[in-house]
Amino acid sequence: MKTIKIAIQKSGRLNEKSVDLLKKSGLSFENYKSSLISPVNNFPLEILFLRDDDIPEYVQDGIADLGIVGENVIAEKEVDVTYLQKLGFGKCSLKLAIANHSDINVLADLNGKSIATSYPVILNNFLQENNINAEIREISGSVEISTNLGLSDAIFDIVSTGGTLKSNGLKPFAEVMRSEAVLIGKNGIAKNPVVFELLQRIQSVLRAEQTKYVVMNASKENLPAILELLPGIKSPTIVPLATADWVAVHTVIPEKDFWDKINRLKTAGAEGIVVLPIEKIIL
Ligand SMILES: Nc1ncnc2c1ncn2[C@@H]1O[C@H](COP(=O)(O)OP(=O)(O)OP(=O)(O)O)[C@@H](O)[C@H]1O
Ligand SMILES: O=P(O)(O)OC[C@H]1O[C@H](OP(=O)(O)OP(=O)(O)O)[C@H](O)[C@@H]1O
Ligand SMILES: [Mg+2]
Protein backbone atom coordinates (compact mmCIF):
# COMPACT_ATOMS: atom_id res chain seq x y z
CA MET A 1 0.00 0.00 0.00
CA LYS A 2 1.27 3.46 -0.88
CA THR A 3 2.39 5.58 2.06
CA ILE A 4 0.17 8.57 2.85
CA LYS A 5 0.72 11.60 5.08
CA ILE A 6 -1.26 12.93 8.02
CA ALA A 7 -0.68 16.43 9.43
CA ILE A 8 -1.16 17.02 13.15
CA GLN A 9 -0.41 19.99 15.41
CA LYS A 10 3.26 20.17 16.41
CA SER A 11 2.59 21.59 19.87
CA GLY A 12 -0.41 23.12 21.55
CA ARG A 13 -3.88 22.11 22.62
CA LEU A 14 -4.42 19.36 20.02
CA ASN A 15 -0.95 17.79 19.89
CA GLU A 16 -1.13 15.35 22.78
CA LYS A 17 -4.63 14.08 22.04
CA SER A 18 -3.85 13.67 18.33
CA VAL A 19 -0.70 11.66 19.14
CA ASP A 20 -2.66 9.61 21.70
CA LEU A 21 -5.41 8.79 19.22
CA LEU A 22 -2.95 7.63 16.57
CA LYS A 23 -1.02 5.53 19.12
CA LYS A 24 -4.23 3.95 20.43
CA SER A 25 -5.07 3.17 16.80
CA GLY A 26 -2.06 0.88 16.86
CA LEU A 27 0.43 3.14 15.09
CA SER A 28 4.01 3.02 16.33
CA PHE A 29 6.06 6.18 15.81
CA GLU A 30 8.48 8.49 17.56
CA ASN A 31 7.07 11.80 18.75
CA TYR A 32 10.30 13.79 18.78
CA LYS A 33 9.61 17.43 19.48
CA SER A 34 12.50 18.38 17.19
CA SER A 35 11.45 16.49 14.05
CA LEU A 36 8.77 17.76 11.72
CA ILE A 37 8.09 14.41 10.12
CA SER A 38 7.91 10.95 11.66
CA PRO A 39 7.52 7.69 9.78
CA VAL A 40 5.09 5.14 11.26
CA ASN A 41 6.93 1.82 11.69
CA ASN A 42 3.98 -0.53 11.28
CA PHE A 43 1.58 1.28 8.92
CA PRO A 44 2.03 3.03 5.53
CA LEU A 45 1.76 6.51 7.05
CA GLU A 46 4.01 9.49 7.71
CA ILE A 47 3.15 12.09 10.35
CA LEU A 48 3.82 15.77 9.66
CA PHE A 49 4.00 18.05 12.72
CA LEU A 50 2.76 21.53 11.77
CA ARG A 51 1.29 24.78 13.12
CA ASP A 52 -2.45 24.16 13.24
CA ASP A 53 -3.15 27.20 11.01
CA ASP A 54 -1.30 25.53 8.13
CA ILE A 55 -3.06 22.16 8.30
CA PRO A 56 -6.29 22.93 6.35
CA GLU A 57 -4.42 24.34 3.34
CA TYR A 58 -1.81 21.56 3.36
CA VAL A 59 -4.67 19.05 3.18
CA GLN A 60 -6.63 20.98 0.56
CA ASP A 61 -3.51 21.20 -1.61
CA GLY A 62 -2.68 17.51 -1.13
CA ILE A 63 0.69 18.14 0.56
CA ALA A 64 -0.84 16.08 3.37
CA ASP A 65 -3.55 13.52 2.58
CA LEU A 66 -5.14 13.79 6.04
CA GLY A 67 -5.11 16.25 8.91
CA ILE A 68 -6.32 16.62 12.48
CA VAL A 69 -7.39 20.19 13.22
CA GLY A 70 -10.13 22.25 14.89
CA GLU A 71 -13.28 23.04 12.91
CA ASN A 72 -12.66 26.70 13.81
CA VAL A 73 -9.41 26.72 11.84
CA ILE A 74 -11.03 24.99 8.86
CA ALA A 75 -13.82 27.57 8.84
CA GLU A 76 -11.34 30.44 9.10
CA LYS A 77 -9.29 29.17 6.15
CA GLU A 78 -12.43 28.51 4.05
CA VAL A 79 -10.86 25.41 2.49
CA ASP A 80 -12.51 22.72 0.44
CA VAL A 81 -11.68 19.43 2.19
CA THR A 82 -13.54 16.26 3.14
CA TYR A 83 -14.71 15.80 6.73
CA LEU A 84 -13.96 12.21 7.73
CA GLN A 85 -14.60 12.06 11.48
CA LYS A 86 -15.35 14.23 14.49
CA LEU A 87 -12.83 13.31 17.17
CA GLY A 88 -14.48 14.47 20.41
CA PHE A 89 -11.57 16.54 21.79
CA GLY A 90 -10.57 20.21 21.49
CA LYS A 91 -14.19 21.17 22.13
CA CYS A 92 -14.69 24.92 22.33
CA SER A 93 -16.86 27.77 21.02
CA LEU A 94 -16.12 30.94 19.14
CA LYS A 95 -17.88 33.73 20.97
CA LEU A 96 -18.25 37.45 20.91
CA ALA A 97 -17.49 38.88 24.34
CA ILE A 98 -17.76 42.32 25.88
CA ALA A 99 -16.58 44.04 29.06
CA ASN A 100 -18.76 43.33 32.11
CA HIS A 101 -19.77 47.01 32.25
CA SER A 102 -20.21 47.42 28.46
CA ASP A 103 -23.19 49.33 27.05
CA ILE A 104 -23.51 46.78 24.22
CA ASN A 105 -26.74 44.82 24.76
CA VAL A 106 -27.94 43.49 21.42
CA LEU A 107 -26.11 42.55 18.22
CA ALA A 108 -27.11 45.81 16.52
CA ASP A 109 -25.19 47.71 19.21
CA LEU A 110 -22.00 46.42 17.57
CA ASN A 111 -22.58 48.78 14.62
CA GLY A 112 -19.73 51.28 14.48
CA LYS A 113 -17.79 49.42 17.18
CA SER A 114 -14.43 47.66 16.92
CA ILE A 115 -13.93 43.95 17.55
CA ALA A 116 -10.54 42.31 18.11
CA THR A 117 -10.01 38.76 16.90
CA SER A 118 -7.66 36.15 15.46
CA TYR A 119 -10.59 34.86 13.37
CA PRO A 120 -11.37 37.74 10.97
CA VAL A 121 -12.95 35.57 8.25
CA ILE A 122 -15.46 33.82 10.52
CA LEU A 123 -16.26 37.11 12.25
CA ASN A 124 -16.67 38.98 8.97
CA ASN A 125 -19.06 36.31 7.65
CA PHE A 126 -21.09 36.50 10.84
CA LEU A 127 -21.27 40.30 10.80
CA GLN A 128 -22.33 40.30 7.14
CA GLU A 129 -25.05 37.71 7.76
CA ASN A 130 -26.38 39.93 10.54
CA ASN A 131 -25.99 43.22 8.63
CA ILE A 132 -23.62 44.66 11.18
CA ASN A 133 -21.02 47.17 10.21
CA ALA A 134 -18.19 46.91 12.72
CA GLU A 135 -14.45 47.30 12.42
CA ILE A 136 -12.48 44.07 12.72
CA ARG A 137 -9.07 44.43 14.37
CA GLU A 138 -7.00 41.36 13.62
CA ILE A 139 -4.52 40.37 16.31
CA SER A 140 -2.67 37.09 16.55
CA GLY A 141 -3.06 36.26 20.26
CA SER A 142 -3.98 37.42 23.78
CA VAL A 143 -7.20 38.76 22.27
CA GLU A 144 -8.94 38.90 25.65
CA ILE A 145 -6.70 41.71 26.86
CA SER A 146 -7.49 44.07 23.97
CA THR A 147 -10.66 45.56 25.45
CA ASN A 148 -8.88 46.46 28.70
CA LEU A 149 -6.13 48.11 26.68
CA GLY A 150 -8.70 50.26 24.88
CA LEU A 151 -7.91 48.54 21.57
CA SER A 152 -11.45 47.31 20.93
CA ASP A 153 -15.06 47.50 22.18
CA ALA A 154 -15.58 43.74 21.97
CA ILE A 155 -13.60 40.60 21.25
CA PHE A 156 -14.26 37.45 19.24
CA ASP A 157 -12.26 34.42 20.39
CA ILE A 158 -12.21 30.84 21.58
CA VAL A 159 -14.06 30.12 24.81
CA SER A 160 -14.05 26.82 26.63
CA THR A 161 -14.50 27.10 30.40
CA GLY A 162 -14.91 30.89 30.21
CA GLY A 163 -12.06 31.32 32.71
CA THR A 164 -9.96 33.55 30.44
CA LEU A 165 -12.93 35.85 29.77
CA LYS A 166 -13.69 36.08 33.46
CA SER A 167 -10.17 36.86 34.52
CA ASN A 168 -10.09 39.69 31.97
CA GLY A 169 -13.38 41.25 33.14
CA LEU A 170 -15.29 40.08 30.06
CA LYS A 171 -18.59 38.27 29.58
CA PRO A 172 -19.78 36.17 26.61
CA PHE A 173 -22.25 37.98 24.41
CA ALA A 174 -23.06 35.67 21.47
CA GLU A 175 -21.95 32.24 20.33
CA VAL A 176 -21.01 32.16 16.66
CA MET A 177 -19.78 28.59 16.21
CA ARG A 178 -18.94 25.44 18.11
CA SER A 179 -15.83 23.51 17.28
CA GLU A 180 -14.01 20.29 17.99
CA ALA A 181 -11.04 18.50 16.48
CA VAL A 182 -11.86 16.63 13.29
CA LEU A 183 -10.09 14.31 10.89
CA ILE A 184 -10.11 15.84 7.44
CA GLY A 185 -8.81 14.57 4.13
CA LYS A 186 -8.10 15.96 0.72
CA ASN A 187 -11.08 15.49 -1.56
CA GLY A 188 -11.28 11.97 -2.98
CA ILE A 189 -8.98 10.44 -0.32
CA ALA A 190 -11.79 8.59 1.49
CA LYS A 191 -11.57 5.84 -1.16
CA ASN A 192 -7.90 5.18 -0.39
CA PRO A 193 -7.55 1.75 1.34
CA VAL A 194 -4.99 3.08 3.86
CA VAL A 195 -7.41 5.86 4.85
CA PHE A 196 -10.26 3.36 5.09
CA GLU A 197 -8.21 1.13 7.41
CA LEU A 198 -7.04 4.06 9.56
CA LEU A 199 -10.59 5.39 9.85
CA GLN A 200 -11.86 1.97 11.01
CA ARG A 201 -9.20 1.91 13.69
CA ILE A 202 -9.86 5.48 14.84
CA GLN A 203 -13.60 4.80 15.03
CA SER A 204 -13.01 1.65 17.11
CA VAL A 205 -10.98 3.73 19.58
CA LEU A 206 -13.60 6.52 19.71
CA ARG A 207 -16.41 4.01 20.26
CA ALA A 208 -14.46 2.41 23.11
CA GLU A 209 -13.81 5.78 24.75
CA GLN A 210 -17.54 6.45 24.86
CA THR A 211 -18.27 3.11 26.55
CA LYS A 212 -17.40 1.18 29.71
CA TYR A 213 -17.36 -2.58 30.24
CA VAL A 214 -19.38 -3.44 33.33
CA VAL A 215 -19.56 -6.71 35.25
CA MET A 216 -22.06 -7.14 38.10
CA ASN A 217 -23.47 -9.90 40.24
CA ALA A 218 -27.19 -10.46 40.66
CA SER A 219 -29.58 -13.03 42.02
CA LYS A 220 -31.62 -14.75 39.31
CA GLU A 221 -34.67 -13.23 40.95
CA ASN A 222 -33.42 -9.70 40.20
CA LEU A 223 -32.12 -10.54 36.73
CA PRO A 224 -35.22 -9.53 34.70
CA ALA A 225 -35.27 -6.04 36.30
CA ILE A 226 -31.55 -5.64 35.62
CA LEU A 227 -31.83 -6.77 31.98
CA GLU A 228 -34.69 -4.31 31.54
CA LEU A 229 -32.20 -1.51 32.28
CA LEU A 230 -29.80 -2.63 29.58
CA PRO A 231 -31.58 -1.70 26.36
CA GLY A 232 -29.72 -1.50 23.11
CA ILE A 233 -27.40 -4.31 24.10
CA LYS A 234 -28.25 -7.28 21.92
CA SER A 235 -27.29 -9.89 24.48
CA PRO A 236 -25.49 -9.17 27.73
CA THR A 237 -23.38 -12.17 28.70
CA ILE A 238 -24.80 -14.04 31.71
CA VAL A 239 -22.45 -16.39 33.56
CA PRO A 240 -23.54 -18.65 36.45
CA LEU A 241 -21.76 -18.08 39.78
CA ALA A 242 -20.64 -20.78 42.23
CA THR A 243 -23.37 -19.58 44.61
CA ALA A 244 -26.68 -21.16 43.58
CA ASP A 245 -29.17 -18.88 41.84
CA TRP A 246 -26.62 -16.08 41.32
CA VAL A 247 -25.16 -14.90 38.03
CA ALA A 248 -22.61 -12.40 36.73
CA VAL A 249 -23.88 -10.04 34.03
CA HIS A 250 -21.30 -8.64 31.57
CA THR A 251 -22.36 -5.66 29.50
CA VAL A 252 -21.24 -2.34 28.02
CA ILE A 253 -22.67 1.00 29.14
CA PRO A 254 -22.30 4.34 27.31
CA GLU A 255 -20.19 6.89 29.19
CA LYS A 256 -22.80 9.64 28.78
CA ASP A 257 -25.45 8.19 31.11
CA PHE A 258 -23.06 6.03 33.10
CA TRP A 259 -23.78 7.10 36.70
CA ASP A 260 -27.51 7.25 36.20
CA LYS A 261 -27.46 3.72 34.80
CA ILE A 262 -25.21 2.37 37.58
CA ASN A 263 -27.45 3.81 40.30
CA ARG A 264 -30.53 2.28 38.70
CA LEU A 265 -28.77 -1.09 38.36
CA LYS A 266 -27.90 -0.96 42.09
CA THR A 267 -31.50 -0.20 42.97
CA ALA A 268 -32.57 -3.16 40.80
CA GLY A 269 -30.32 -5.45 42.84
CA ALA A 270 -26.93 -5.42 41.06
CA GLU A 271 -24.03 -6.03 43.45
CA GLY A 272 -20.23 -6.02 43.28
CA ILE A 273 -20.22 -3.85 40.18
CA VAL A 274 -16.82 -3.77 38.43
CA VAL A 275 -16.16 -1.19 35.72
CA LEU A 276 -13.38 -1.65 33.17
CA PRO A 277 -12.12 0.64 30.40
CA ILE A 278 -12.49 -0.69 26.87
CA GLU A 279 -9.58 -0.36 24.48
CA LYS A 280 -11.36 -0.86 21.16
CA ILE A 281 -14.80 -1.78 19.84
CA ILE A 282 -14.64 -3.32 16.37
CA LEU A 283 -18.00 -3.70 14.68
N1 LIG B 1 -9.45 26.42 25.71
C1 LIG B 1 -9.65 25.50 24.78
N2 LIG B 1 -10.36 24.40 25.03
C2 LIG B 1 -10.57 23.47 24.08
N3 LIG B 1 -10.08 23.55 22.83
C3 LIG B 1 -9.37 24.62 22.53
C4 LIG B 1 -9.10 25.64 23.48
N4 LIG B 1 -8.34 26.59 22.91
C5 LIG B 1 -8.14 26.15 21.65
N5 LIG B 1 -8.76 24.99 21.40
C6 LIG B 1 -8.73 24.20 20.15
O1 LIG B 1 -7.40 23.78 19.94
C7 LIG B 1 -6.87 24.35 18.75
C8 LIG B 1 -5.41 24.66 18.95
O2 LIG B 1 -5.27 25.60 19.99
P1 LIG B 1 -3.85 26.24 20.33
O3 LIG B 1 -4.07 27.26 21.40
O4 LIG B 1 -2.87 25.17 20.57
O5 LIG B 1 -3.56 26.94 18.91
P2 LIG B 1 -2.37 27.81 18.40
O6 LIG B 1 -1.78 28.58 19.52
O7 LIG B 1 -2.90 28.52 17.21
O8 LIG B 1 -1.33 26.69 17.95
P3 LIG B 1 -0.22 26.68 16.76
O9 LIG B 1 1.06 27.00 17.44
O10 LIG B 1 -0.25 25.26 16.26
O11 LIG B 1 -0.64 27.67 15.72
C9 LIG B 1 -7.76 25.57 18.49
O12 LIG B 1 -7.77 25.95 17.12
C10 LIG B 1 -9.10 25.06 18.93
O13 LIG B 1 -9.69 24.23 17.94
O1 LIG C 1 -12.45 29.58 28.17
P1 LIG C 1 -11.10 29.08 28.57
O2 LIG C 1 -11.14 27.69 29.15
O3 LIG C 1 -10.35 30.03 29.46
O4 LIG C 1 -10.23 28.89 27.23
C1 LIG C 1 -10.11 29.92 26.29
C2 LIG C 1 -8.68 30.23 26.02
O5 LIG C 1 -8.00 29.06 25.55
C3 LIG C 1 -7.25 29.41 24.40
O6 LIG C 1 -6.02 29.89 24.72
P2 LIG C 1 -4.83 28.96 25.26
O7 LIG C 1 -4.97 28.73 26.72
O8 LIG C 1 -4.73 27.73 24.43
O9 LIG C 1 -3.56 29.87 25.04
P3 LIG C 1 -3.05 30.52 23.67
O10 LIG C 1 -4.11 31.53 23.27
O11 LIG C 1 -1.77 31.16 24.08
O12 LIG C 1 -2.87 29.42 22.65
C4 LIG C 1 -8.07 30.52 23.74
O13 LIG C 1 -7.29 31.32 22.89
C5 LIG C 1 -8.61 31.28 24.93
O14 LIG C 1 -7.74 32.33 25.30
MG1 LIG D 1 -2.39 28.46 15.38
From TrEMBL:
GO molecular function term, any single one: ATP binding
Control of this protein's activity: Feedback inhibited by histidine.
Enzyme class: transferase
Cofactors that this protein relies on: Mg(2+)
Catalytic reaction equation(s): 1-(5-phospho-beta-D-ribosyl)-ATP + diphosphate = 5-phospho-alpha-D-ribose 1-diphosphate + ATP
Protein EC: 2.4.2.17
Cell location: Cytoplasm
Keywords: Amino-acid biosynthesis, ATP-binding, Cytoplasm, Glycosyltransferase, Histidine biosynthesis, Magnesium, Metal-binding, Nucleotide-binding, Transferase
Domain ATP phosphoribosyltransferase catalytic: 51-203
GO annotations of cellular component type: cytoplasm
Pathway: Amino-acid biosynthesis; L-histidine biosynthesis; L-histidine from 5-phospho-alpha-D-ribose 1-diphosphate: step 1/9
Principal cellular location given in the protein's record: cytoplasm
Protein's GO biological process: L-histidine biosynthetic process
Ranges for domain Histidine biosynthesis HisG C-terminal: 208-280
Alphabetical list of InterPro entries matching this protein: ATP-PRT_HisG_long, ATP_PRibTrfase_cat, ATP_PRibTrfase_CS, ATP_PRibTrfase_HisG, HisG_C, N-reg_PII-like_a/b, N-reg_PII/ATP_PRibTrfase_C
Function: Catalyzes the condensation of ATP and 5-phosphoribose 1-diphosphate to form N'-(5'-phosphoribosyl)-ATP (PR-ATP). Has a crucial role in the pathway because the rate of histidine biosynthesis seems to be controlled primarily by regulation of HisG enzymatic activity.
Family listed: Belongs to the ATP phosphoribosyltransferase family. Long subfamily.
Name of this chain's protein: ATP phosphoribosyltransferase
Organism: Solitalea longa
Gene: hisG
